[in-house]
Amino acid sequence: MTQFRPLRTIFLIVVSKLGLTDATPLQIVFTDQPSRIIIGSEVHLTCAVRGGNDPHTTWIPATGLLPLNSHITNGGRTLVITNYDVTDNGQYICVASDGREFAHHIFTLNNMHPETYPWTTLLRSSTTTPVPIRPAPGEVRIVSLSVYPDPYHFGDDVELTCRVYSATSYTSFGLKMLTDPNHISPNVQLVRGIDSVTLRIHHFVRDNVGDYQCFIANSFRQADQNITLHSPNYMV
Fold this sequence. Notes:
By secondary structure, this protein is mostly beta strands. The protein folds into 2 domains: about 25-115, Sandwich (Immunoglobulin-like); about 135-235, Sandwich (Immunoglobulin-like), CATH 2.60.40.10. Helix content is about 5%, strand content about 40%. The protein has 1 helix and 14 strands; from the N terminus they run H-E-E-E-E-E-E-E-E-E-E-E-E-E-E.
């Protein structure tokens, strides 16, 4: 006697063979870039991806061509620019795709020539200390850096939120864990707002313990602030 499988069973078999079952959505869960750039230094931009079906990461500059003094490492997650020069200023886009969905993050790099800062030397009395008469505009500061809930425990959903202020458009802004990107736990998600960024940690685990940094910079100034997420066992 011939047995017929229900249509739902046949559909699930087909979907499974196509690799379309309940995959975690493709998303960029961690980004890292220096808060200060020094001419001649080596600059690392890192973009960590989670989810999707074996996604591939590529780097695209706004000019269309990556600098000759750059290379990609860390399995495609990191763009390295050696001997950084002002000609390397601009936007670099990390694009992750698995053929069905994609995610991207835009990095903006900017290091201005020292002569663009309007400093004037003023001599007073016997001192020869340079005194800035007209400091560069563009106030920037970290408004707050907070953890919720407080206290937290292993297994809790924890949010680390940083709020910032910049008098002009910022060139870089983010929240990062101060560790090797390869050691970033996969249970984190970065959510950006206009003047805030939140790191959401799903079911806090020991790998999430460590130091984190909120940073912001505009064309004139930069600011950063660190915070430590301790092990709940040692919290008073």
